[in-house]
Sequence to fold (214 residues):
Amino acid sequence: MMRIVSADTMRKAEQATINRFGIPGQVLMETAGRACAEALRETFGGNENRTAVIVAGKGNNGGDGYVVARYLRGWGWDVSVRVVARKEEVSGDAALNLALLDPGLVRYCASAADLEPCFAEFRNAGVLVDALFGIGLKNQVSGVHADVVRMMNASGRPVVAVDIPSGVDATTGAILGSAVQADLTVTFAFGKMGHVLYPGRALTGRLVVADIGL
Fold:
C-alpha cells in the first residue's frame, strides 16, 4: 500500500532527515536524481532514440534534474540541459550539481526569446525530463515558465516528471495556471496527494515512488 502525504508533511520529513539524522541535502538530491534516472532508463532505455532534454528550474527540483542529466550522460545518452533561469539564480545544492555538468550541455533560457530554439530540440528528443518545479510550488505558472510548459506538452514526446508534474499543487492536485502532462512521474519517499487527486492525477501518468532514505 502506498503512503500518501501532503507537501508540508514531505518537507518536514526531509528536514528531519537532514537536521536530526545528519544526512546532507546533497546526498538526498543525489539519491533522488539517480532514482529518477534509473526509472527513466528502465522505461525508455530500449528506445532507439536515447536523447534526453532536461528542462530544469533554479531550485532543488532543477538540482534533481542536473543529477539525472549526469547519470544519463554517464550511461551513454545524448543529453542537453535547458535551465529556465539565469545562471546566477541557481544556488545551494542545485548549483553544486549544475557545476558538475559539462558547460557545453547547458543553455540558460531566462526569456521567451531564449526558448525559441528549444521547441525543435524537444520534438527531436527521445524523452523530456520535467525538473522545473517541485512540491513547493504555490504561485501560478506564468511567463517564460508557462511558455516552456506549453512547448513540452506540444512536443509530442514522452515526458518524465521529477517528483510531480510542474504546475500541479502537490497537496490539492490543482493546476496552478498551466501544468506539464507527464507520461511517467518519479516521486520520492511517499506519494503526494496531488498525484492522486484530480486534476493532478490525470497529469501524473505512471507513478513510481523511489526510496531515497528518509
